[in-house]
């Protein structure tokens, strides 16, 4: 590692933006520098750390393993310096116009967004909340500050990502009122004989489909939708059954005139967590939003 007395902190800023953008020209535009200036900074970084750090490929300037190892500590160090240099670290929700971004699934939006937006309307009327899906770049988006929080069951978020459990939940099976065969406490044989609505792409809820298959429900023999949003609409006008997270069932059953039952399946309960980047652990706005999420949704 280099002697810190000889390290220009401006080089670390260039390093962090190269990690995010992976393009020298894009970094130059963002930092209002010339392209030769960014290239020179990269040369100095390579000399300082004794590693190429970024290698030009068809996918852009990809980081080396050494650069990946440096990413977390550099982001945390720069984040700490940013906070130390801020003129006012206080966050006043009542007067703030800050926009926050939270990664969640479609079923998460159904559960979290109404209550969260209602609370913001009362306590922080100028604050705005955006929800996004947590894709392959979620870790990088959180590190860069483009996503403030993630909420759900993102099993691959670790390392510099901190977490707090909000709740655990099981699953319920929904069906329309007046269904000719479905009823509370129906057995596995009768359950298996029904037509089911399969939710095919709703990660991380694949364990529902695994349990259905283990019980003898052949998934490809049934109707499917990619996400949970359409499920109550479909069930309200058909004789299909759908097994969904318990909180979604509770929120949609009465609204769509549906009934619920405990499915005759063995499905592990699902743990829902709140995630944030270590870099923003002490950010006052992030702390406020985390506290609000815990107040509104944490159980146990």
Structure description:
This protein is α/β, with parallel strands linked by helices and about 300 residues long. The protein folds into 3 domains: about 5-85, Orthogonal Bundle (Arc Repressor Mutant, subunit A), CATH 1.10.10.10; about 100-170 and about 270-295, D-Maltodextrin-Binding Protein, domain 2, CATH 3.40.190; about 170-265, D-Maltodextrin-Binding Protein, domain 2 (3-Layer(aba) Sandwich), CATH 3.40.190. The protein has helices spanning about 10-20, 25-30, 35-50, 65-85, 105-125, 140-145, 190-195, 205-215, 230-235, 245-250, 285-295, and strands at about 55, 60-65, 100-105, 130, 150, 160-170, 170-175, 195-200, 225, 240-245, 260, 270-275. It has a 5-stranded mixed β-sheet with strand order 4-3-5-12-6. A 3-stranded antiparallel β-sheet has the order 10-7-11. β3, α5 and β4 (about 130) form a beta-alpha-beta unit. α1 packs across α2, α1 (about 10-20) crosses α3 (about 35-50) and α2 (about 25-30) crosses α3 (about 35-50). It is elongated and about 75 Å long. The mean pLDDT is about 90.
Please give the domain count. Answer: 3
Strand content: 15-25%
The CATH fourth-level homologous superfamily of the largest domain: Periplasmic binding protein-like II
Report, as a whole number of angstroms, the end-to-end distance: 45 Å
DSSP summary: helix tally = 11
Report the oligomer. Answer: single chain
**What is the arithmetic mean of pLDDT?**
89
Strand arrangement, major sheet: 4-3-5-12-6
Query: Can you identify the CATH class of the largest domain?
Result: Alpha Beta
Indicate the CATH architecture of the largest domain: 3-Layer(aba) Sandwich
Overall geometric form: elongated
Please provide the count of β strands: 12
Amount of helix? 40-55%
CATH topology of the largest domain: D-Maltodextrin-Binding Protein, domain 2
Order of helices and strands: HHHEEHEHEHEEEHEHEHEHEEH
Radius of gyration: 24 Å
Structure class: alpha/beta
- pLDDT < 50 runs, ≥5 residues: none
Largest sheet data: 5 strands, mixed
């Amino acid at each position: 590692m280099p002697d810190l007395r000889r390290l220009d902190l401006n080089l670390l800023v260039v390093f962090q933006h190269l990690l995010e953008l992976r393009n020298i020209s894009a970094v130059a535009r963002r930092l209002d520098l010339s392209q030769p200036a960014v290239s020179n900074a990269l040369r100095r970084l390579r000399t300082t750390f004794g590693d190429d750090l970024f290698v030009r490929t068809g996918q852009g300037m990809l980081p080396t393993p050494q650069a990946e190892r440096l990413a977390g500590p550099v982001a945390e160090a720069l984040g700490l310096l940013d906070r130390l240099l801020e003129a006012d670290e206080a966050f006043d929700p009542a007067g703030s116009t800050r926009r926050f971004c939270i990664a969640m699934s479609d079923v998460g939006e159904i559960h979290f967004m109404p209550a969260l937006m209602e609370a913001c309307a009362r306590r922080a009327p100028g604050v705005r909340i955006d929800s996004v899906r947590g894709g392959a770049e979620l870790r990088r988006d959180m590190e860069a500050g483009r996503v403030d929080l993630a909420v759900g069951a993102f099993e691959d978020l670790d390392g510099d990502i901190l977490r707090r459990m909000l709740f655990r939940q099981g699953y319920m099976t929904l069906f329309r009122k007046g269904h000719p065969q479905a009823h509370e406490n129906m057995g596995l044989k009768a359950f298996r004989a029904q037509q089911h609505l399969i939710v095919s792409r709703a990660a991380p809820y694949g364990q529902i489909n695994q349990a259905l298959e283990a019980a003898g429900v052949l998934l490809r023999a049934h109707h499917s939708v990619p996400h949970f949003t359409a499920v109550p609409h479909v069930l309200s006008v058909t004789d299909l059954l759908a097994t969904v997270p318990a909180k979604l069932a509770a929120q949609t059953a009465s609204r769509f005139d549906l009934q619920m039952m405990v499915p005759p399946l063995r499905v592990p309960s699902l743990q829902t967590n709140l995630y944030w980047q270590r870099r923003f652990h002490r950010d006052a706005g992030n702390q406020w939003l985390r506290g609000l999420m815990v107040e509104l949704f944490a159980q146990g």
